[in-house]
Amino acid sequence: MVAGMSAWSWSLGRFFGIETRVHFTFVLVLAWAAYSAIAQGGTAVAAALAVLFMVAVFASVLLHEIGHALMARVFGVPTRRIVLSPLGGVAQLDGQVLRPREEFWVALAGPLVSFVLAGSLFTLAALTGAWSPTSFIGGLAWANLMIAAFNMLPAFPMDGGRVLRSVLASRVGLGRGTEIAAKVGRVAAVGMMIAGLFTSPMLFLIGAFVFVAAGAEARAVDGFLGRRSRDVGRAPGALFGRREDSRGERVVPDAIFGRQGGRLWPPRRKVVVVIDDRWN
Ligand SMILES: [Zn+2]
Q1: What is the pLDDT of residues 100-113, one digit of tens each?
Q2: What is the CA radius of gyration of the chain?
Q3: pTM of this prediction?
Q4: How far is the CA of 242 from the centre of ligand 1 (A)?
Q5: Contact predicate 210/155, CB 8 Å
Q6: Which of 152, 184, 201 is the last residue of a domain?
Q7: Does any domain span residue 200?
Q8: Which are the catalytic amino acids?
Q9: Distances in Å between the alpha carbon of 155 and those of 161, 163, 250?
Q10: How far is the CA of 65 from the centre of ligand 1 (A)?
């Protein structure tokens, strides 16, 4: 989903210094919003409001992604760019591996922003009496609540999947934690697909996408841990090491393995292949 997404996108400029792009299909979403408003017998004003509502929803998604990016910044991890598409937003972080505690907070930050937005908008709706999901403020409040709730589903690539993985990783390590989280994600995906069969084809498609994404995440971590890629040892900068050397000194910190500790060590290495009973 991430790959190639920035190719068909326009720059929106920078927010908090982070390059932000929007996928060109966003225009189709706006056109569709205007068309459906008019098709339902709406005026030009109604069409303009529908377009404005879509822009507000996208702004909400942008704030959600900025939440992820700023929390990552707290942990010293920069964000390369944020890309918004009709399928949702992605904050592309630099560097692949966050410590479990970092991943927990970075993944949670987006849905937290959406929950806070929903809460503020519901308060505003209560003050103005515009509760209905068909009103602008009420609708936007519901949209933010949906964004938060949907993203907290415990399935990759949703934030809930990452929260779950980080909690598991701090107990059983990154490899096993990802495996379990991917399995939970697949079960959730099958559930979505079955529910989609009876309700909406869109839900079925999302379920299928989540099912594939869960496997991709598991393979990425597997590759990172060097389990299935022996060639990785020949890559420049690769380091083979045990968790502890023969003198019992720590060679690679526990970070990658889900305990407390530092980042990749030594820091300049690109690949660390670890031989450890826990991982093989
Ligand atoms: Zn998110």
Answers
A1: 888 999 999 999 99
A2: 21
A3: 0.73
A4: 34
A5: yes
A6: 152
A7: no
A8: 65
A9: 4, 9, 33
A10: 6
